Structure formats: C-alpha cells, structure tokens
Amino acid sequence: SVLAFHSNIFAIPFAGPIAVWCFFLISGFLVSNILYGCYAGRPGAFLQNRFLRIYPTYWAALAIGFIILAYDPIGYGEFVLDANIPLSYESFINNLFIFGILPNASQTVVPPAWSLAIELHWYLLLFAGSFLSKKVVIAFLLANLLIPFLIIFMWNGNIYGAGAGFAFALGALAYHINYQPHIIIQKAAVAIFPIALLITPIYFGASSFEINSVAANTHLIISSILVFLALPWLTKQSAQTSKISWLPNLAGELSYPLFLVQFFGMWVAIKFFGMPRMG
C-alpha cells in the first residue's frame, strides 16, 4: 500500500497513510509484547535489539541516499520535494540518528525516516513505562487516545504526523488490557478493513493533498480501530505454522529495507528505465 501510494497510483489514494498508522498500531502491540515477554527484566537487551533492528539497515539506506544526492541532486530533488544533502549540523545529526526528523522536513535524505522517528520515540516511551505500574501505563495510553481529537477540534491541525501516537497507544493498550471482542466482531473488522483501506477513501475523497480533511482524519481513526478490534484474530492466525510460513516471514524481513529505499528504487526506474510516474 505504501509503495503504490508513493507511486501516485490514484486507485488507492489514501491507502499509504492508513497503512502507516496501522503499522504504528501493530508496532505498539508487538513492542509491548516483547517488552513484557522475552525482554522482561532485560532492559539492556531490549535496547540493543531495537538498535540493531533499526540503525544498521537505516545507515545503509542513508549512504545510498547520499550517493544519489551527490550524483543527481536536481533530478532527485524534483522527484522527492525538498530532498537535499543536509546543510547544517543539526540537520546532519537528525538524519544520522533519526530522532529529530519531522514529517515533510526539508533536507531529509531518507524520506520515510519521519515515521521511524515516531517509532523510536514510542519505543522509548514504552520502555520507560515498563518500569512503572500497569495502571499508570494504561492511564498514559488512554490519554494519548485524545490527542487526534484535540488536534482536530482545538488546533485544526494535521493528525497524520502529530496524532500518530493515537495508533501506537491503541496498539500498546490492546496488549495491556487484552481486549477480546466477540469473534464475530473480530472477523467483521477484518472484512471491513479492506473497504476502509481501498474503497471508501475514493468515495469520500480522502486524499494526501488534503491530509487534514474530515475524510482523511476519519479514515485514519476508523481504520486503526478496525485493526485494534481484529488484533486477537490476526495474532492467532500469525501464530499458526504451515509449509509456507517462511513466505510471510521473508516478507516481514524485507519490508523494512524496502520501505527505506522505495524512493531510491523509483528514482532509478524513472531515470534509467523510463518508468512513468503516475499522477
């Protein structure tokens, strides 16, 4: 969904942002699961694991980005708006360590890195929460569920970036409260989700060009809630093994590096192979 969205395939005009939020939700659930599971009592091992999962692959993508920007700064800058070699010390540090990268920030070498910054911030928040009582953590997560609505009704702002903690908090909350809706609700959420991902954004005009519209905000929130309701069924299915279990595992391992280099791949396809960019 994200790759097709960034290729401007208008048949799925809002599937990319929805998929990113749902990824945040699943991350919140899974990171909480490993924090209180296999890494319980081993905080150093958790931090080491997250570092090794994120940074070596990211730094490899960052090096590729620097090479492309050095080779074709104008062409790549036109393809990815505001992409440029960092010109300040602060921008260089942000690109190197991810934390300071904001959505649509200029001088970002790896364009999807803003979502990694949100991931890393929430890793640290959930990590800090693992030293607190469960009631305090749940209260904090519930408070974060209000953020998108405060942004919409009080600040009239864009919830896609600033309100993304809603999805992460909802995923972590799913782990802590172990909510188990009726199986009919779980399966209904699974069935309805593709409609919210692919069909209703077209009908209601949800678009990345109006990222803070009512249609966009509604789809982000409702899609996240659908995944929240479907999580028990989804986790049960993912725990089952079969002869083709290696395939989704491989897809999972490849998804992160592909996510990082997607714009580089599209630039190569356009510049050297004449691939038209739709839109």
Write the SSE topology.
Blueprint: H1 2-6, H2 15-35, H3 43-71, H4 73-79, H5 89-97, H6 113-129, H7 134-144, H8 147-155, H9 159-162, H10 165-177, H11 183-204, H12 214-239, H13 246-273
Helix pairs in contact: 2-6, 2-10, 2-12, 3-4, 3-13, 7-10, 10-12, 11-12
Structure overview:
It is a single chain. The chain has 279 residues and is mainly alpha-helical. 72% of the residues lie in helices and 0% in strands. Helix 2 (15-35) packs parallel to helix 6 (113-129). It has 13 helices and no strands.
Number of strands: 0
Global Rg: 19 Å
The largest pleated sheet is described as: none
The overall average pLDDT, rounded, is 89
Q: Specify the overall morphology.
A: globular
Number of helix segments?
13
Order of helical and strand elements: HHHHHHHHHHHHH
Contiguous low-pLDDT stretches (5 residues minimum) are none
Structural class estimated from helices and strands = mainly alpha
Strand content: under 5%
Distance, first to last CA:
16 Å
Q: What is the percent of helical residues?
A: over 70%
Question: Which features would summarize this protein structure in a list?
Answer:
globular; mainly alpha; 279 residues
In short:
This protein is mainly α. The protein has helices at 2-6, 15-35, 43-71, 73-79, 89-97, 113-129, 134-144, 147-155, 159-162, 165-177, 183-204, 214-239, 246-273.
